[in-house]
Design goal:
With 336 residues, the chain is an alpha/beta fold. 36% of the residues lie in helices and 19% in strands. Strand 3 and strand 4 form a beta hairpin. It is globular and about 55 Å long.
Length: 336
């Protein structure tokens, strides 16, 4: 019998789940649950945390679950095990999106150690970025990170492609914001005046600076870097004299297909890219409006001349240091 298989696997899944919940999710809804099944850990979608207006088909929930799965893989590796995993192991149970287990003993790689440290520092940066360009070697590292998870990452070089994508994103944002249910759902996930373990704190919202359309009651605020971020809150922006980059690096993450399995793959690729960026000292925010609107998503695909499916738009650069968004306690999402 193989020595590694003969050894009784001992993985601290509670510790692993503490890392998993650091993954990003739409509106910080944290749509996951984790359940120990023998020596395996099941990753499940939580139907109570679905977003019927923002994510009716569950695309965003599966992206989030895939990102959480990637963190689990790194956490298991840091405990001295090669992680094995299976996506969608039971066709009769679509909320069971993955199972993870310790496969064989090995030491974590240096790359895994760096990604592990990045898990605890990563956060979305909703502020404008500084004018410093993203170095070529950092761009290449992000492309390689996506490819390592079976995804592609297409950086948009030059003002023309970035402006074209920004126009698509702005139109998609306007389509979404015309839906009263969508606006109500955004408001429901905004957290103001009290500590919270989910949702988006108001102080992390958009800076309402010179580029914003700040009409009373209007939510489609537009950042000066052209890509629309969600209007959670509205802290004061920087003055026009501050040297922010009007166009950070923009990149599109995608997969070869768009099945539920592809979306889980995309979530893992997204998280590896985000952690790689964090490790390199880069700030990142995600712009999903052009993915949420089907016609806009097709426009993005055609503009990129890609046969695959865009899954997320990223803005990448150097920005003001922020802090991580709150997460629910492990006890709320973990069933030992």
């Amino acid at each position: 019998m193989d020595g590694a298989r003969a050894e009784s696997p001992t993985v601290d899944y509670r510790r692993a789940v503490a890392a998993a919940v650091r993954a990003p999710s739409l509106h910080n809804s944290q749509p996951w649950r984790f359940q120990v099944r023998g020596d395996r850990l099941a990753v499940r979608l939580d139907p109570r945390r679905r977003l019927p207006a923002s994510d009716p088909a569950g695309w965003g929930a599966r992206i989030a679950a895939g990102a959480a799965l990637f963190n689990l893989r790194i956490a298991v590796a840091m405990q001295g095990w090669q992680p094995g995993y299976e996506l969608l192991p039971d066709p009769a149970d679509p909320d069971l999106v993955a199972e993870l287990w310790p496969e064989q003993r090995r030491r974590p790689t240096r790359a895994e150690e760096r990604l592990w440290r990045a898990i605890w520092r990563r956060h979305s940066n909703r502020s404008p970025f500084w004018p410093d360009p993203v170095p070529a070697d950092a761009r290449a590292a992000l492309v390689t990170a996506a490819q390592a998870e079976g995804c592609w990452l297409e950086p948009l070089i030059g003002a023309g492609p970035a402006n074209a994508l920004a126009q698509i994103a702005q139109t998609a944002n306007q389509v979404l914001m015309r839906d009263p249910a969508y606006r109500a759902e955004l408001a429901a996930w905004l957290r103001t005046g009290r500590p919270a373990t989910d949702g988006v704190p108001a102080e992390r919202g958009l800076p309402a600076d010179a580029g914003a359309v700040a009409d009373a009651g209007r939510l489609d605020l537009v950042l000066p870097d052209l890509l629309p971020l969600r209007p959670f809150g509205g802290r004061p922006g920087r003055g026009a004299g501050d040297e922010f980059n009007p166009q950070p690096m923009v990149a599109v993450l995608g997969t070869t297909g768009d099945t539920p399995g592809d979306q889980l793959v995309a979530g893992q690729g997204l998280q590896r890219v985000l952690l790689t960026a964090t490790d390199a000292g880069l700030a990142v925010s995600m712009v999903s409006q052009p993915i949420e609107v089907a016609s806009a998503r097709e426009q993005v695909r055609l503009a990129l001349r890609r046969s695959g499916s865009p899954q997320m738009v990223l803005r990448v650069g150097y920005g003001i240091a922020g802090s991580v968004t709150p997460r629910r306690p492990v006890a709320e999402v973990f069933e030992p």
